[in-house]
Amino acid sequence: MQAVGYYLSLPFLYFISVLPFPLLYLLSDFCYLIIYYVVGYRKSVVRTNLRNSFPEKSEEELIKIEKAFFRYIVDFFLEMLKCLTISKESLLKRVSIENPEVVEELFNQGKSIIVSTGHYGNHEWVNQVLPFMLPFQIKTIYRVQHNAYFNQLFLDFRSKYGVEMIAMNEAYRKINTKEDKPYLLILANDQSAPADKAFWTTFLNQETSFFPGTEVFAHRFNVPVVYVCIKRVARGRYRAVFDMITTAPKEMPKGKILEEHAKKLERDIKQDPTPWMWSHKRWKYQKINGQYIDVNYRE
């Protein structure tokens, strides 16, 4: 059944991918109306997350953010499909780096780095374009998809310009290898981490769990950690901004790297909440008075 669904979807996916950008965004505008006003995809999840994150905002302000998010999320999914056929030249026109010197200086010192990020802005385009913009070997940790056919499709377009994709269960073995040149390892850390294995901190007014992997790898391999924000500067245009967390991770107290990541991500979300994945069930687990609570989201 996985193969049937995949091969039936493939022509449709490629048809969307080859659309010129003006038509792609015209399609996005139409899909937004259907998804927001008719389907209501995870609207209650988005609304709950926004209300808990911004208790100081009025209902009118929250609805404005909600609608802007849904417009963006449709753009993002269509832009992700564009990855199937997008050219190097088009990527370089649409993605820029504001301050590459932050990481290039570390490369010149022969140091690999971990880039800590969230699902904020178009991380797919940035992932694809980095091999053309930075001298590192680019590596990205990913979660294996349940459908093996779609999993391979995602791997193919994510790696077609030279990024090495590493499954989570192979991360330690594939990172701990001798490299010809320094690597830049991308780790997204804003999913809901299992309660008893997580680092907990206050994030967007809520006790929030974070996966500890970023800090574990940084301490184990003594690799500098840099946060990156992928800002949406216009429709279909993004700018990556690097922000140093530490060049000496072993000197950082336990939890400090993750705390800094959380603070920087929260800062960026507050500045522009639209391009963060509010539809994620980010707070599936909560910590209240020292007790772990499973939260049932209504959809």
TrEMBL record:
GO terms for molecular function: acyltransferase activity. Keywords: Acyltransferase, Cell inner membrane, Cell membrane, Membrane, Transferase, Transmembrane, Transmembrane helix. The chain crosses the membrane at residues 12-39. InterPro entries: LipA_acyltrans (IPR004960). Pfam families: Lip_A_acyltrans (PF03279). It is found in: Cell inner membrane. CDD domains: LPLAT_LABLAT-like. Signal peptide: none annotated. GO terms for cellular component: plasma membrane. GO terms for biological process: glycolipid biosynthetic process. Its main location: membrane. This is Lipid A biosynthesis acyltransferase. It comes from Emticicia agri.
